[in-house]
Amino acid sequence: MTSIIELDGHTLTRQQVARIVKKEALVVLSHDSEERVKQSRVWIEKRLAEGQAIYGVNTGFGKLSHIRIEEADNELLQLNLLRSDAAGVGEPFPIEIVRAMMILRANALARGFSGIRQDTLQLLLDCINKGVHPIVPSQGSVGASGDLAPLSHLALVLVGEGKAEFEGVVLPGAVALQRAGLAPVRLQAKEGLALVNGTQAMTGIGVVTLNEVERIGLAADMAASLSLEALKGIISAFDPALLAVRPHPEIEFVGGRIRKWLAGSKRVTKQGEVRMQDAYSLRCIPQVHGASWQSFFYAEGRVQIEMNATTDNPIVLESGEVLSGGHFHGQPIAFAMDFLKLGVCEWANISERRTERMVNPQLNDGLPPFLAMNPGIECGLMIAQYTAASLVSENKVLAHPASVDSIPTSGNQEDHVSMGTIAARQVHQIVRNTARVIAIELICASQAIYLEKVEEQLAPTTSAYLKKVRQFCPPLTTDQPIGDEIEALAVYLLASDELVELAN
């Protein structure tokens, strides 16, 4: 049965967003939010009746803010804003990201600081619930003044313009609304600006990506566990007393998780049994993976705040005063996404090094070269490591911080921007690349364990997960193409909550 999630502008979580995105829950406005939205609109109309000049309500936008707009043109001003700002280009965002953007914009408006009418907000909620998804190009936002281009493409559908997907078909916005049993709104003063001035594109990407990053981080921990078994890794490096002397909590919980998952394994060794020390890619798993988890937790905290924040301009305060500020600026999320990029990249970097360790006959402790059944006539998984190396290198290019760049816009009125949406788009791609790198490590560990014929010596937890890996890529008995298998396993890693449940 589909559940109901109330939007109140204060308590939304990334897990709730995931449920709504998957259409496992419907959204409604909380009673308190209804009252705040109504009062916010009362203040806007009162200030207009008093003849007060309000930015973007009865003035132009950006560099044109000095131009006063006649009352008769206030509605046209808002419609023109959507039309002129809908200048995005590139491939459209996936529907899951568009849905996240819609949810976050509705939640921001539910806080009651934006002056929008309840009817307009309700149409946005109805589109979420009935599956009307605007077509939103992925490129064109500089991450300040809000995500103007993406959100304008989103908002155009509410006025019966633009394009939207409904029941698998891309339609003109008005037709999509009609087929869903909805009618477009006619925007009034402030409403166009309230819909497009915010950080919901970058934050929407961030929310969807964080849910995937959690899964990929856990997959990295599991892949490392299987690699430790494949290579007779030294479990002494994960000793709790040892890890405790450097008390980063992430180091300790990665170490604890891997100890738990390897409990009962007869493949891991102790210091001095096979070798005195492992290479860094094995020995330093708690430190490297732990640092990547630090970037995840930092980004999660910033995104959690931003999901429940007011990010438009001007703001209608509870006192009725309408003030212009800079809450639309995406710098907090830009930094968070750039930091997250580094953490995810490092999961891929160290994973590829473990893969190299398993396939390289000079490093793999007696395993067949490149994990081939018949080395020489067969290349085994040699080129799978090439693929991992290529993806890791691509990640390094994408990891360049977008947030250090800025290009002035709007006649230099908007003279510093965040490029946060670029950072979010980059981390979204890095996560996909990293899922493939980890899939390759899992396949290599599976093959090494198969060649050694030691499945019965694995820990119960890793043994159970190995069976899942082999559903996607059974052990190789001869050379064969495995690109499809790598991709299918990567898609599973991005989507499955199996390890999230296991970790909890």
From TrEMBL:
The lineage of its organism: Bacteria, Bacillati, Bacillota, Bacilli, Bacillales. It catalyses: L-histidine = trans-urocanate + NH4(+). The modification 2,3-didehydroalanine (Ser) is found at S145. Pathway: Amino-acid degradation; L-histidine degradation into L-glutamate; N-formimidoyl-L-glutamate from L-histidine: step 1/3. Its EC number is 4.3.1.3. The keyword Lipoprotein does not apply. There is a cross-link at A144-G146 (5-imidazolinone (Ala-Gly)). Keywords: Cytoplasm, Histidine metabolism, Lyase. Belongs to the PAL/histidase family. The keyword Aminoacyl-tRNA synthetase does not apply. Contains an active site 4-methylidene-imidazol-5-one (MIO), which is formed autocatalytically by cyclization and dehydration of residues Ala-Ser-Gly. InterPro entries: Aromatic_Lyase (IPR001106), Fumarase/histidase_N (IPR024083), HutH (IPR005921), L-Aspartase-like (IPR008948), Phe/His_NH3-lyase_AS (IPR022313). Gene3D superfamilies: Fumarase/aspartase (Central domain) (1.20.200.10), Fumarase/aspartase (N-terminal domain) (1.10.275.10). It is found in: Cytoplasm. It comes from Lysinibacillus contaminans. This is Histidine ammonia-lyase.
